Amino acid sequence: KNVLDNLESEVRGYCRNFNPLFKSASGSLMVDSNDNQYIDFLAACGSLNYGHNDPDMSLSLKRHIDNNGITAGLDLYTSTKAEFLKSFNERILQPRKLNYRTQFTGPTGTNGVEAALKLARKVTGRHNVISFTNGFHGVTLGSLAATGNKYNRMGGNLSGVSRAPFEGYLDGGFDTADYLDQLLGDPSSGIEPPAAILFETVQGEGGLNAASPQWAQKIAEIAKRHGALLIIDDVQAGCGRTGSFFSFEPLGIEPDLVVLSKSISGYGLPMAIVLIKPEYDQWGPAEHNGTFRGNNHAFLTASVMLEKFWSDDSFSQEIAHKAEIVKHHLQRIAARVPGSMIKGRGMMQGVSVGNGKFASLVCCRAFEKGLIVETSGPHDEVIKVLAALTIPMNLLGRGLDIIEESALEIMQENGISRVVPISQPTPETIQKLPQRRHG
Question: Rounded distance, CA 384 to CA 360, Å?
């Protein structure tokens, strides 16, 4: 650890809160150099939706390496890439009646967002982009301009983006979609006609603010009416995190462009893609490129992930069951912590305690008890549960219990009065959970 503290840049972040020397991980457990185990409710910030070192993906990757399979392929044709595209089309796109072409970008979410913004600007001939309060889209200059977080936005000339209020941002039930529509329809509003409207259906870093179907559909209609492409940033909310493979499925919208990264490889390997409606696939050859857009190891594990978890709807049903358990536990916590509220949906939920210091103290105490869990929101006021979708029920329940125990201890130590708790999940509810061979 001294080597890491002395030689790694000051930019390091997560290790300041979770500071053991980790040596191994399996499923939803991480192990440090002293053989202490930690339940993982961080999942590499949503990059490990399917847990650490899934055995089927591991085995496939080992075989690929032993057979001298392609590692870095640029955008050359490879059998591994072809298998991924075929599987993605057959298991994800066709069952949902979606018609997209797949662009492989540089291997991070911000690379995907940059590509989507660049393409929207090329297709429309416009430059301005509409993004929303508390949105987080990456930290390279184009995506950073669309990101709301002040801490990340420090310095630089961040231009080309007009900010609009996300749903629920303004008090009194104010309809922010109508507000945006009025701005774009007024030639004297000062807002340039946009190339794209970009948003997350659940704002991961912004505090788990979840868009409603009504609001999302209005935004989609506004984009179409005003000649802008609709871009959904599904980097964190996608790949099953909210229950369906794409977070926008239950909202009744069909974006023009979709950005996926984080868990798209299934294994935590770097990979990002942009899904493009065919009529907007107007790139010239290599007009947007990137040396590591051909990570064949990631293509391979992604194919295994699709076959293992998305061949039918059973995994979605499992996510829904676990999401209900998470919601019930969080409701119990919210009922005992004054001023709290549940946020998010699916397995992307959390409890806003209205106070960043309190939330941080709870997460620190939880870590002392063997749980890795982080905060989100503009003031770090949301305790954010981002457990792997494959987490076994006993670990999920124990982790949620640790959050509650930690919150109550911090309340007691600070003289905060308790509220009467609500009932716990029934054994019947837990027994309905389908049994799978992972975890």
Answer: 11
Helix (H), strand (E), coil (C) string for 188-232 = CCCCCCCCEEEECCEECCCCCEECCHHHHHHHHHHHHHCCCEEEE
Element (H, E) at 23: strand 22-26
DSSP states of 153-188: T-SS---SEEEEPPTT-SSTT--HHHHHHHHHH-TT
Query: Which amino acid appears at position 313 of this protein?
Result: D
| Identity of residue 260 | L
CA distances (Å), origin 35, targets 40, 52, 72, 234, 436: 15, 17, 35, 35, 27
Residuewise pLDDT in 10s, the chain (439 residues) = 789 989 999 999 999 999 999 999 999 999 999 999 999 999 999 999 999 999 999 999 999 999 999 999 999 999 999 999 999 999 999 999 999 999 999 999 999 999 999 999 999 999 999 999 999 999 999 999 999 999 999 867 899 999 999 999 998 889 999 999 999 999 999 999 999 999 999 999 999 999 999 999 999 999 999 999 999 999 999 999 999 999 999 999 999 999 999 999 999 999 999 999 999 999 999 999 999 999 999 999 999 999 999 999 999 999 999 999 999 999 999 999 988 999 999 999 999 998 899 999 999 999 999 999 999 999 999 999 999 999 999 999 999 999 999 999 999 998 876 543 444 444 343 333 333 333 3
CB of 413 within 8 A of CB of 339?
A: no
Q: What is the dihedral of CA 41, 46, 49, 54, to 10 degrees?
A: -90
Instruction: Answer for the pair 108, 270: CB distance below 8 angstroms, yes or no.
Output: yes
Beta-strand runs (E) in 72-181: 101-104, 129-132, 161-164
CA angle 301, 307, 311 (to 5 degrees): 150
Rounded CA gap, 216 and 249, in Å?
Answer: 11
Q: How far is Cα 146 from Cα 159, in angstroms, rounded to an integer?
A: 9
In this structure, are residues 260 and 233 in contact, taking their beta carbons and an 8 Å threshold? Answer: no
- Three-class SS state of 3: helix
Does the pTM surpass 0.90? The reply is: yes
* Structure-token match 């109550």, residue found: 408
